Amino acid sequence: MTKEKIVIGFYEDVLIDGKVIRAKIDTGAGVSSIDSSLADAIKVGPVIGRAAVVNTHGRAVRPVVMLKVEIGGKTLDAKFNIAIREHLRYPILIGKNILRQGFIIDPKKRLKKNGRKTIKKTQDLQSQD
User: Fold this and answer.
1) What angle do CA 18, 22, 27 make, to 5 degrees?
2) Domain boundaries, the chain
3) Topology of 7-109 in CATH?
4) pLDDT digits (tens, 9 = 90+) for 14-64
5) Buried b or exposed e, range 111-126, using 16+ CB within 10 angstroms
6) Which of 12, 22, 38, 120 is the most buried (most CB within 10 A)?
């Protein structure tokens, strides 16, 4: 018996703490990431660990938290490292730790308008206050 995979695109709207947030899907990222300002705004739970990450700026150690996230209609608990993403377009990055839980990426898939207020880019976080 095989479970049906959920098809998502390169960008998806995810639901975290009642907020709809545009996320970038990144198959090269091992662990998902959340912007530190967004993490503060939704008052994420306790730090459960630290993660060493390597990116274009070098190496860094980031705090890790568990969050309940809904993506493609599926709700799951997942680890997110907290990063400064204010200079990046999307406040959420979905990595392989979530993608391995039953998702397939279709580059042709487009987002549908959902009629809900969506945080589409990191700069939108300032207008949420």
Assistant:
1) 120
2) 7-109
3) Cathepsin D, subunit A; domain 1 (2.40.70)
4) 999 999 999 999 999 999 999 999 999 889 989 999 988 887 778 889 999
5) eeeeeeebbbebeebe
6) 38
